[in-house]
Amino acid sequence: MSNPILLFVVFCTGLCIGSFLNVCISRIPRGVSIISPGSRCPACGHPIRFYDNIPVISFLLLGARCRNCKSLISIRYPAVELLTGAMACFVVLKYGPGIPALIYFLFIASLMVMAFIDLDCRIIPDRISLTGIVAGLAVSPFLPEITFTESLIGAAAGGGSLFAVAMGYYLITRKEGMGGGDIKLLAMIGAFTGWQGIIFTIFVASAVGTVVGLVLMASAGKNMKFAVPFGPFLSLAAVVYLFFGQSLIHWYLFGIRPY
To answer: What is the mean pLDDT of residues 67-77?
Structure first.
């Protein structure tokens, strides 16, 4: 599927949804409604006019500053919008326009919200991850690559594997090394990707997380107890699996070149 007009519409729709995701990332950790009140400047609280709330374009026209108080607007806002637009296009290109693409896009959007909240606040909201587990099981019959049974096994394997790791670490050290949010997040990922997705996600997230964690600790001069949120790495690995996981697994096991 390479219809440029359709892709443009999908991209613009993704930008608008990305703007909403920014609202979720900002408000959910504070327990504030994501519906009301309307968008406001986080610095001065002034309501943002509709023409100042156009994804990416308003950020550029305003010079990355609030029209009212001139405070800088975080680059994260247009970055999330652009990333969401890109993800919308990628799922349509990968799975074609239809229900599976919509489901996977909403799954990725949820992962993005949880990843950025985890980066900001070191929490993964249960209202997203637990709802996501149920949703993943419910929509699994509409997905092309897993069955309901595989979804159920994936959710159990995802949550169970990290729970076992967390309990083992606690029994050895008497300290919590992994939050319950990561356990529920991986269970949600398993509900959408099955047990193969769990194996891939854990492996890739652990590898990337280790490298990034070591770099951050070295640059910050921290010791091995330096806390790095694991949720963003789980989310990133799950997205990589959606687009490249099956081909990478086949290449690794059988020498078949990824496509």
So the answer is: 91
* Gap between the Cα atoms of 25 and 30, Å rounded: 9
Cβ atoms of 112 and 84 within 8 Å: the answer is yes
pTM: 0.89
Tell me phi and psi for residue 141, to 5 degrees. Answer: -65, -20
Q: Which two tokens stand for residue 237?
A: 């690995």
Write the DSSP string, 32-96. Answer: --SSSS--B-TTT-PBPPGGG-STTHHHHHTTTB-TTT-PBPPTHHHHHHHHHHHHHHHHHHHH-
The DSSP bridge partners found for residue 65 are: 72
Q: Alpha carbon 60 to chain centroid distance?
A: 25
Tens digit of pLDDT for each residue in 87-137?
999 999 999 999 999 999 999 999 999 999 999 999 999 999 999 999 999
